[in-house]
C-alpha cells in the first residue's frame, strides 16, 4: 500500500508505528535537552552589535515586493555540540561562508520560520505571537536533530534586530517587516549523522501584501496526483524539504489556469492544505441551519499554523455559538463538492503568515470547477473578510487579545 493511497483505516493502523515514532521523538527530546543543558545556552545578554557603515535606501511602500529587499542587518549565532551556543551577533547583511560539503547542502538539515513585525498607529513596533513561532521552530529543530534553544532569548534577539532596523518597518495596514529565522547544519563532510555544528541566522524583509493583486480570491486545483505529506513524516514541521517538491505540481496546476494546489490525501481524498497555507471551509446545514467553520486536524500531516490557531481561537471566542460550530475534522473534496451542489458551501479561505487570509473562489476537481460564493461585486466572503479584519486589528495594535502582540519599543 502506497502512502499516497493510504485510507483512514490504514492511517489508523499506523498508530502503533506512530507511537514508536513518538517514543523516538521523546527520546530525541531528552537527549537534545540534556545536550543543550550541558553546554552554553542561547543568551541574549551576550549580544554583540556591529552596525553597517553603508545604510541602504528605504523603498517606498509601492515598490515593496515580497521577500525581494532586505534590511541593513542580520542576526547570526553559531552552535557547537561541545561548547553550545556562541555569542549572538547583529552585523551588516551579507552572504554566508560555508564549506561546499556542508550537510545542509547534501542532506537537508535546514528549517525556518516566518513571522512579522508591524508598526502601529502610535509608531510602536509589534510582533504577532512570536512565542508560537519559537515553539514551532524548536519542534522543527528537534525533528531533524538540530539544536534547540530558549524561546524567550531568541525573541529578545529578534527584537533587538528589528529595533536596530526600525526604519525599514513600513507604515500602513497591509505592510510589515517579514522576519525569517533560519537554522542550518554546517558540519563539513559527506557522512550523514547528527549535526555537531549549526548556524542560526535571522534576516528581515520589508513587505507589502503577499499577492500583488491585493485581497482577491484565488483559484485552486484539488491535487491527488502528488502528495505533500504523509503519516509519520514531517509535514507538520517547517522544513525546506517540504516546500521544494511542491513547486512542480504548482507549475502544473498553473498550466491549467489554477494559482495553487489544494493538497489531498488518501483514497478518501481528504483535504489537507492549500499551497503553503492551512485551509478553512464554512458550511451551512440546509436542514438545521447550523453553520460550521472547519479545517483539517493536526494529525502530523499539516503545518501547525499560527494564523490557523489564531482563526480557531477567534472563531470560538467571537462567533455566535448558537449559530456556529468551529471544528477540526477530516473532510473530503467530495464532501465539499456535494455540499456546494446543495448550496451548503458558504466560503473557503487559506491562512498563513505571509498572506494572512486568502479568499478562494474556485476549486478544480475531476475536470469541473467547484464555485465558492463571494459577496456581490467583491473578491471575498463576509466571514473571510471578518477574520482578515480581526487579525489585522490585533497585528497593528488596534485591539488586544490574550497578549498575542509583543511591543518591541
UniProtKB/TrEMBL annotation:
Give yes or no: UniProt keyword Glycosyltransferase.
no
PROSITE patterns assigned to the protein according to its UniProt record, in alphabetical order: AA_TRANSFER_CLASS_4
Check the record and name the InterPro entries matching this protein.
Answer: Aminotrans_IV (IPR001544), Aminotrans_IV_CS (IPR018300), Aminotransferase-like (IPR036038), B_amino_transII (IPR005786), BCAT-like_C (IPR043132), BCAT-like_N (IPR043131), BCAT_family (IPR033939)
Q: Does Transferase appear among the keywords?
A: yes
Q: What is its EC number?
A: 2.6.1.42
Database matches in Pfam families: Aminotran_4
Necessary cofactors: pyridoxal 5'-phosphate
Q: Name one GO biological process term.
A: L-valine biosynthetic process
GO molecular-function annotation terms? Answer: branched-chain-amino-acid transaminase activity
Q: In which pathway does it act?
A: Amino-acid biosynthesis; L-leucine biosynthesis; L-leucine from 3-methyl-2-oxobutanoate: step 4/4; Amino-acid biosynthesis; L-methionine biosynthesis via salvage pathway; L-methionine from S-methyl-5-thio-alpha-D-ribose 1-phosphate: step 6/6; Amino-acid biosynthesis; L-isoleucine biosynthesis; L-isoleucine from 2-oxobutanoate: step 4/4; Amino-acid biosynthesis; L-valine biosynthesis; L-valine from pyruvate: step 4/4
The UniProt entry's GO CC annotations, sorted and at most eight, read: mitochondrion
What is its EC class? Answer: transferase
Superkingdom field: Eukaryota
The text of the family note is:
Belongs to the class-IV pyridoxal-phosphate-dependent aminotransferase family.
Q: Which PANTHER family match?
A: BRANCHED-CHAIN-AMINO-ACID AMINOTRANSFERASE (PTHR11825:SF44), SUBGROUP IIII AMINOTRANSFERASE (PTHR11825)
Q: What is this protein called?
A: Branched-chain-amino-acid aminotransferase
Q: Please give the organism.
A: Saccharomycopsis crataegensis
Amino acid at each position: 500500500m502506497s502512502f499516497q493511497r493510504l485510507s483512514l483505516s490504514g492511517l489508523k493502523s499506523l498508530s502503533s508505528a506512530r507511537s514508536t515514532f513518538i517514543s523516538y521523538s521523546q527520546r530525541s527530546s531528552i537527549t537534545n535537552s540534556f545536550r543543550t543543558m550541558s553546554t552554553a545556552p542561547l543568551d541574549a545578554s551576550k549580544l554583540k552589535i556591529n552596525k553597517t557603515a553603508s545604510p541602504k535606501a528605504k523603498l517606498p511602500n509601492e515598490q515593496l515586493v515580497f521577500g525581494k529587499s532586505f534590511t541593513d542587518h542580520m542576526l547570526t549565532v553559531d552552535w557547537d555540540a561541545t561548547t553550545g551556543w556562541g555569542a549572538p551577533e547583529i552585523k551588516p547583511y551579507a552572504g554566508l561562508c560555508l564549506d561546499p560539503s556542508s550537510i545542509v547542502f547534501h542532506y537537508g538539515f535546514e528549517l525556518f520560520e516566518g513571522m512579522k513585525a508591524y508598526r502601529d498607529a502610535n509608531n510602536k513596533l509589534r510582533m504577532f505571537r512570536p512565542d508560537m513561532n519559537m515553539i514551532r521552530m524548536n519542534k522543527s529543530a528537534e525533528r531533524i536533530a538540530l539544536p534547540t534553544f530558549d524561546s524567550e532569548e531568541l525573541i529578545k534577539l529578534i527584537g533587538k534586530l528589528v529595533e536596530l532596523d526600525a526604519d525599514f518597518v513600513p507604515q500602513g495596514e497591509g505592510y510589515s517587516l517579514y522576519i525569517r529565522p533560519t537554522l542550518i547544519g554546517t558540519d563539513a563532510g559527506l557522512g550523514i549523522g547528527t549535526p555537531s555544528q549549526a548556524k542560526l541566522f535571522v534576516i528581515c524583509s520589508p513587505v507589502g501584501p503577499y499577492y500583488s493583486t491585493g485581497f482577491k480570491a484565488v483559484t485552486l486545483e484539488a491535487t491527488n496526483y502528488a502528495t505533500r505529506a504523509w503519516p509519520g513524516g514531517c509535514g507538520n514541521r517547517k522544513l525546506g524539504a517540504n516546500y521544494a517538491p511542491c513547486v512542480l505540481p504548482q507549475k502544473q496546476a498553473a498550466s491549467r489556469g489554477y494559482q495553487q494546489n489544494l493538497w489531498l490525501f488518501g483514497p478518501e481524498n481528504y483535504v489537507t492544505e492549500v499551497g503553503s497555507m492551512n485551509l478553512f471551509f464554512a458550511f451551512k446545514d440546509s436542514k438545521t441551519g447550523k453553520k460550521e467553520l472547519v479545517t483539517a486536524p493536526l494529525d502530523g500531516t499539516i503545518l501547525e499554523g499560527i494564523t490557523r490557531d489564531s482563526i480557531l481561537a477567534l472563531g470560538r471566542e467571537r462567533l455566535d455559538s448558537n449559530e456556529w460550530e468551529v471544528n477540526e475534522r477530516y473532510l473530503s473534496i467530495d464532501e465539499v463538492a456535494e455540499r456546494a451542489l446543495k448550496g451548503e458551501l458558504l466560503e473557503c479561505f487559506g491562512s498563513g503568515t505571509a498572506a494572512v487570509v486568502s479568499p478562494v473562489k474556485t476549486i478544480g476537481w475531476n475536470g469541473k470547477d467547484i464555485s465558492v460564493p463571494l459577496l456581490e461585486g467583491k473578491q471575498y466572503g463576509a466571514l473571510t473578510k471578518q477574520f482578515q479584519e480581526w487579525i489585522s486589528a490585533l497585528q497593528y495594535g488596534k485591539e488586544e487579545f490574550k497578549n498575542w502582540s509583543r511591543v518591541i519599543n
